[in-house]
Design a protein that fits this description.
- The chain is an all-beta fold.
- Helices cover 0% and strands 45% of the residues.
- A hairpin with a 2-residue loop joins strand 3 and strand 4.
Length: 82
């Protein structure tokens, strides 16, 4: 799902990503950056204060980074909007 006006409604720590409930499309490096396995590719480095837009299908590791996206339940929407 695309961002609405470049704004995400879900932000969680990368190590706590819930791919069952959310669709993530951006990774933010936070204040220290991180290294993770992303979409089956190992050794992905995200620098501090950097971000990458990508459809996240699988993720592991990433302590120190944040992932951003949307709720999969579009009927209920996000409790964070409006």
């Amino acid at each position: 799902m695309a961002k609405i006006n470049d704004i995400h409604s879900i932000v969680v720590k990368a190590e706590n990503a819930n791919l069952t409930a959310h669709t993530y499309t951006e990774i933010y490096g936070g204040s220290s950056g991180c290294t993770m396995m992303l979409n089956g590719v190992t050794g992905i480095n995200i620098g501090s204060s950097s971000s990458i837009s990508v459809w996240i299908r699988s993720i592991s590791g990433g302590t120190g980074c944040l992932v951003m996206g949307e709720n999969k339940d579009v009927g209920q929407g996000s409790v964070l909007l409006g």
